[in-house]
Amino acid sequence: MAELQLDNLTKHYKQGKVVIRALDGVSLEIGTGEFVAVVGRSGSGKTTMLDLIGLLLRPTSGRLIIDGVDTAPLGDRARAHLRGTKVGFVFQEYNLLQSLNVLENVMLPLRYVGGSKDGRQRAEELLDRVDLSDRIRHGPGELSGGEQQRVAIARSMVNRPSLILLDEPTGAVDTETAEQLVALLQSLNEHDQVTIVMVTHDLDVANHAKRMVRLKDGKVVADEPVASVAVAKRSP
Q: How far is C-alpha 167 from the geometric centre of its chain's CA atoms?
């Protein structure tokens, strides 16, 4: 069974008499353990698609199925529970709370699912995994951009989600840090069998995924294994 199934998914907005088709009939299946990069120009629908998958928005029409659960009939509480237990979200802006230290930020999602007996241990293990075990008492303002993004990735994993969504995770860091972050994502995907859907404008970053989906004007215009994309780029 596919981890994710998007069936003719749309998201339209009205601006006066004009209808903005942010997402316009997208159908995709993403299997368990895939690493998918979603690319396209600004305004192509990338972030809208990610927000729909992450249950931050409701579609105008179409169906979204996550791990066998049809999300259409779910109320707000059921959607929040599904998001809290199945989905980890990493935002470009990190969204760390300045009033909490690193460890507390990573543990924060546990509050929304009733806590966990091993929550603190789990958070400490994840921070060790992202090489931040020596920074757990620091505040977010004492960290570099790359360190803050690694905290955000650890936070997204603390509830053991089967799916991680990332919105431009390398957009605010330098090239070397971006490569380190991508290597971390590859490790999570390969060793933890976590399904990853990553929105990015950077084709070099996208080429580290296993599959690339290209959006244009809210529609899927290409969906290929990354190996095929890389070969096509090298062809004369």
A: 6
Nearest to 69, CA basis, from 81, 56, 57, 59: 81
Residues 6+ apart with CB under 8 A from 79: 55, 71
- Residues 4 and 29: beta-carbon distance below 8 Å: yes
Phi-psi sector, 177: left (phi>0), alpha (psi -120 to 50), beta: alpha
**pTM (two decimals):** 0.90
Map residue 120 onto helix, strand or coil: helix
Mean of the per-residue pLDDT values of the chain: 90
User: 84-115 burial by CB neighbour count: b if 16+ within 10 A, else e?
Assistant: bebbbbbbbebebeeeebbbbbbbebbeeeee
52-105 pLDDT, tens digit per residue, is 999 999 999 999 999 999 999 999 999 999 998 899 999 888 899 999 999 999
**Alpha carbon separation from 125 to 66, 118, 233 (Å, rounded):** 27, 10, 39
Q: Is the dihedral of CA 180, 181, 183, 188 positive or negative?
A: positive
User: Cα separation of 195 and 161, whole Å?
Assistant: 9
Asked whether 199 and 42 are in contact (CB, 8 A), the reply is: no
Is residue 182 within 8 Å of 205, Cβ to Cβ?
A: yes
- Whether residue 196 has pLDDT greater than 50: yes
Written as six digits, the tokens of 167 are: 């919105």
